Amino acid sequence: MPKPSRGFDGLVVKAWRGRDYRLTVRDSRYVTDHCLRLSFDTGELLDHLPVHPTMWVRLWIPNGRKLQQRAFTLVDPDPRARTTDIEFALHDGSPATEWARAAEPGDTIDATVLGTRFTWPQPDPSGYLIVGDTASLPAINSLLAELNGIPARVWLEWQHEDDQKLPVSAAPGTEVTWVQRTDAGAGLVKTVEEAAFCARGRHAWVACDTKTTRRLVGVLRDRYQLDRKAITAMGYWRP
Fold first, then answer.
1. Where does a domain end: 63, 78, 113?
2. CATH number at residue 131
3. How far apart are CA 81 and CA 94, in angstroms?
4. Which residues on neighbouring strands pair with residue 127, listed in sequence order?
C-alpha cells in the first residue's frame, strides 16, 4: 500500500526548511465532550527547540491517501521528560478528530516545526488584553502561566456549553469573560467594543477565526487607540 502523500503542502514546508519529528502517543483523556487531550513522547523535538509560550507544531493528519497539515499548540511541554500534550477540538467529519479519537498508545504521527516563535513586548506593558476562543485557549494558557503578576483581561468565545469547563490558567489579577459565539463572531467583537476599559499602556493578543480577528484589531485600534505595535494578532482558523 503506497505511503500517504503530503502533497503540495509538503513541498512548501520542505522548501521553507521545516524540521520533521515523530511523536508517539502515550495516552488520551477527554477534557470535555468536545475536547480530547492526547499525551505524546516527543522524541528529539524538545531537545532541539527552546520551549516558549504559544509554541506550536504542524501535525500531518491522515486523510485518505493524503496527509493534511494542521497547526496545534503544545500543552505543558516538558523537555526533561520529553513529553507534551496536545488538545483536539472535536468536530464531526474532521480528519484530525477521527485520528485523535482512534489514537492508541504506541501510535505515531509526524510533526513539522516551521514558524513557531514568540517575543515578549518590551518594556513590560501595564497589562494584557487577550481575546480568543477554544482553538487558541492552549496558547492563551501558556501566555497566562508566564505573566508573572502582570494583570490580564481575557475574553474567550465558546460554542458548546461545556467549553466553559475548559481549564483557564487565571492567576490573581486575571479577569476572564466567556462570550457565546453568535453571528459568526460578531457577538464577541461587540462585547469587547462595549466593555469600556482603559487600554493605555496595555498589550493586546488576539487569536480567533480570521475574520473575527481582523475586526477585533480594528476595534482595538479605532475604539481603544492601541498602536499597531501594541497588538499581536493572528487568525487561528477559517470558518
1. 113
2. 3.40.50.80
3. 31
4. 202
Number of domains observed in the structure of the chain: 2
Give the neighbor-by-neighbor strand order of the sheet with 56-63.
66-73, 56-63, 108-113, 19-32, 35-41, 83-89, 75-78
User: pTM here?
Assistant: 0.93
SS (H, E, C) 54-117: CCEEEEEEEECCEEEEEEEECEEEECCCCEEEEEEECCCCCHHHHHHHHCCCCCEEEEEECCCC
Largest CA distance in the chain: 60
Query: Which residue among 83, 113, 143 closes a domain?
Result: 113
Look up cell 480568543; give the residue: 132
Answer whether residue 2 is part of any domain: no
pLDDT in tens, the chain (239 residues): 567 888 877 777 776 678 999 999 999 999 999 999 999 999 999 998 889 999 999 999 999 889 999 999 999 999 999 999 999 999 989 999 999 999 999 999 999 998 778 999 999 999 999 999 999 999 999 999 999 999 999 999 999 999 999 999 999 889 999 999 999 999 999 999 999 899 999 999 999 999 999 999 999 999 999 999 999 999 988 87
In-domain check, residue 118: no
Q: Return all residues near 44 (Cβ < 8 A) that are at least 6 apart.
A: 21
* Alpha-carbon span 129 to 175, nearest angstrom: 10
- The boundaries of the domain holding residue 102 are 7-113
Domain shared by 87 and 139, yes or no: no
Measured between alpha carbons, how far apart are the two ends of the chain, in Å? 34
DSSP state of 171: -
